[in-house]
Structures are given as structure tokens and as C-alpha cells.
Amino acid sequence: MFICQSHKASRTIIHLGDHDPSGIDMTRDIQERLNLFEADVNVKRVALTKRQITKYGPPPNPAKLTDSRVDKYIDKYGTSSWELDALEPQVIEDIIKQEVNKLVDKSLLKEVEMKENNDKEILLKIENNYDQVKHFIESEQL
Questions:
Q1: Distance (Å, rounded) from C-alpha 27 to C-alpha 25?
Q2: CA–CA separation, 52 vs 95, rounded Å?
């Protein structure tokens, strides 16, 4: 799970989980627990979805019949389930990047990057003038 600040929602947790009875229900469970504590957070399931299963073709597993949520799952999705970690790591990374990019406040990101670049320039100047900076600091301590 990843938490993103966004102008589209106050806070969003992107949830990645297995496509099985427990994994599908986990998104709902996380949201309900956050609501219980009155957290201003939206939980968005971004993987593993049926569309991604069709696109990437991870191997199916039988749905666990011992899971208390299995009947509802089978009614909606059938008897197969899929593991998130069956996807290539790069695919998972791409899914995360795509979702985070949708949620990022681009103007705020640009502002932070500009400040970061400015701070790097200052640190480089300090490095290049270390002896003078050291002398200045030592003289200020007197």
C-alpha cells in the first residue's frame, strides 16, 4: 500500500492484493477500519484486477474453499484466483507508478523539486567553500 497526497482526494491509499476471496475483501476491510477511526482516506484497489489478469496472464489457482468469503467470490469471479506476486516485478512497479502519477499534485511536485534543486546548489557552494564556511561558523560561536 502507498499513501499519496493529492488534490483529487485528501489522501489515497493505493492497494495491491491477490485476486482471491481474502485479497479482494481486503480493500473493503482497510477502508472500513480507516472509517472506524474517522480517517480522511480513500482506499483504491489498483491490482490485481480481472483486466490485469487478462492482460498479463498470471497462472490461475483454485479459490480456497475454506475461505469464509469464497461463495461470494465464486458467484462474482468463478472458481479461479490469482496471486499478485505472479506478475513480473516491473509490471507491478509500472502499475504503482501509473496510479501515483494520477494522484500527484504536479504543481506542488514542481515547487518541491525547485526547492530541492536550490538547496542542492547551496550545498554545493558550501562544499566548494568549506574552509570559509568553517571559519565563519567557528567565529560565530565566540
A1: 5
A2: 10
